[in-house]
Design a protein that fits this description.
heterodimer; A: mainly alpha; two-stranded antiparallel sheet; 13 helices; 1% strand; B: mainly alpha
């Protein structure tokens, strides 16, 4: 009997293939794919599960586009991305070069690598709590040290200009180590004889960097960039816990804005519209990245 | 001349250890604060060495909050997510990599696009979907979308596809069904990638914050990241208590990392470079 089932399935491989993906695909369809469509649907309504919802077309989007607070959050999201992305990729790449380049001849690089990587394993709440405490206006270690070294240093978390950079810094502390290990793996894949050949030809370290390392690490670098873009644009926890969007609304990013609108003010339709905008903005940015990367070739 | 050579030899060490030292300060300061007596936390200038160290903050944490329960919730959710996604992703990845059916590649492309959509941002419709299922304040309410994340299918497929066809053919000739091929050929040779993906998923679930905060609204049901946020909710910020919570919450990660450093970094490298499977 069992053999008969096996034979049947082998002859109808199509059916069998679908059977194997079914558990995953049904979960995916219900909990990831459907909510995207459902979100678009909700965004077209004045949504109220209690009293009944009213179809309003694009009114939620139009309200958003006329709202200064939305544009403020929109701008903050881009400002934050503009700060964290170069910071994370820059530090991650510098660390990777350091650990990789000095690792072969010097001791202790594994410990250094472990320390630089470890913050990534912490949850965003821990990162936010620790940095909020380090930057506390009166008793923060980092804040106090800075103020005593440079008397004119800003008080980060209470400054409308410096609060967002401070959150970006905390985020870089959290994530740079992860980019480091990924890029380090990329560096280790470069064949050693390329460097030997270059050295024989008299290439200086500077030339080796620009003509061997950079071209060969480019795919890993771009991939890290795409991952960092996604995480920067959906930033939420750090902001909520470190400044709660303040002072004023100077650190209110889009994810926090839509959380406020949806779960504090119960303007569900409007929050859904903001969610749709954010989601498709991220998708567009990453698709540009993917096209740039030529990830498609990986499918064949 | 000689001095120059000494500088050149030791400068890399100074830079490297200097950076590592700066990087670890936040962790040390967190631990330091967690063990300070309450009045000595708020001093100007901040001082590393208090009159004595105390576990009073940690006692207060356990007395006032269901901290142990939060740890338990986190362990349950993360294990559920890891196990669940390993099972469904393996089955699906096997089908995408090894079986032939119509629409396979189209469906896979769609999944790939969804991998780039951060579902956490989509909280409003997710919230209503979960409400309909009655999954608010439940473990499955937090876990199910994480199990449905396509990243595992993508990673595992990438690995399965490179397993030589001859191995599969040999098993087929010996009378193995597809399921036999999966359990006797594919799974045994894929242990490293399972470990890597498992580490990735466990950490992801352990640290997930945005969605967990929305779906878990009872203080008994929340996971650690959300619990830590509750500590901050009081009127007067009790830094001793909050930092004790953060410190205790980071201990599991620290222990596991010290034990399995190499495997964890390897796992993340594999999961993070995506295409390099």
């Amino acid at each position: 009997m069992r053999k008969r089932i096996g034979e049947f399935l082998y002859r109808h491989q199509g059916l069998e293939g679908i059977l194997y993906v079914l558990p995953f695909v049904s979960l995916w369809a219900v909990f990831l794919a459907w909510p995207v469509g459902y979100g678009i649907y909700i965004s077209l309504f004045d949504w109220n599960p209690m009293r009944g919802s009213k179809f309003v077309g694009l009114a939620n989007y139009i309200t958003l586009f006329h709202e200064p607070r939305f544009w403020n959050a929109f701008g903050n999201t881009f400002k934050f991305a503009g700060m964290t992305i170069p910071l994370i990729i820059g530090l991650g790449f510098a660390f990777a070069l350091m650990v990789w380049g000095w690792g072969r001849t010097r001791r202790g690089t594994t410990a250094v690598q472990a320390i630089l990587f470890f913050p990534y394993l912490l949850t965003v709440s821990i990162v936010a709590i620790v940095w909020k405490w380090l930057l506390d206006r009166d008793f923060g270690l980092v804040q106090h040290t800075l103020t005593s070294l440079i008397p004119s240093a800003p008080v980060f978390l209470t400054s409308t200009t410096w609060a967002l950079p401070a959150i970006a810094l905390a985020t870089a502390w959290w994530l740079a180590g992860y980019r480091m290990v990924v890029l380090q793996a990329g560096l280790e894949e470069i064949p050693q004889d390329l460097f030997e050949a270059a050295a024989i030809d008299g290439a200086r370290p500077r030339h080796q960097f620009f003509h061997i390392i950079l071209p060969l690490i480019k795919p890993s670098l771009l991939f890290a960039l795409v991952l960092t873009i996604i995480s920067a644009f959906r930033t939420f926890g750090q902001v909520l816990l470190m400044t709660d969007g303040g002072p004023g609304r100077s650190t209110e990013v889009l994810a926090l804005y839509l959380y406020r609108v949806g779960f504090d003010y119960f303007q569900v339709g409007k929050a859904a519209a903001a969610g749709v905008i954010l989601l498709f903005m991220i998708l567009l940015l990453t698709l540009i990245g993917v096209k740039f990367l030529g990830l498609k070739s990986e499918l064949q | 001349m000689k001095a120059w050579r000494i500088i050149k030899r030791y400068l890399p060490y100074v830079i490297m250890y200097g950076i590592a030292f700066l990087w670890i300060i936040p962790i040390l300061w967190m631990a330091d604060t967690a063990f300070k007596p309450r009045p000595e936390i708020l001093t100007i200038p901040p001082s590393w060495i208090p009159s004595h160290f105390t576990v009073e903050n940690i006692q207060r944490l356990f007395a006032q909050w269901p901290f142990g329960r939060w740890v338990l919730n986190s362990v349950i959710v993360s294990s559920f997510v890891t196990l669940g996604s390993l099972i469904v992703s393996t089955l699906a990845a096997f089908s995408f990599a090894r079986l032939h059916w119509r629409g396979r590649d189209t469906l896979f492309m769609i999944l790939l696009v969804f991998m780039l959509l951060p579902w956490q941002v989509n909280v409003i419709p997710l919230f209503f979907t979960m409400t309909k299922f009655g999954f608010l304040n439940t473990y499955q309410g937090v876990a199910l979308q994480m199990i449905a994340m396509p990243i595992g299918v993508f990673l595992l497929r990438q690995f399965f596809i490179n397993i030589p066809k001859e191995l599969e053919d040999a098993a087929r000739i010996d009378g193995c069904s597809s399921f036999g091929v999966l359990t006797r050929v594919i799974i045994p040779v894929s242990k490293p990638v399972f470990a890597a993906f498992g580490v990735y998923m466990f950490n992801f679930a352990w640290n997930e914050f945005f969605w967990s905060m929305i779906v878990l609204r009872k203080s008994q049901m929340v996971t650690l990241p959300v619990g830590l946020k509750l500590l901050q909710g009081a009127f007067e910020i009790d830094y001793g208590l909050i930092l004790a919570g953060a410190f205790m919450a980071s201990l599991p990660s620290l222990f596991v990392f010290l034990l399995l450093r190499r495997q964890i970094i390897r796992g993340f490298t594999l999961a993070g470079s995506g295409s390099k499977g």
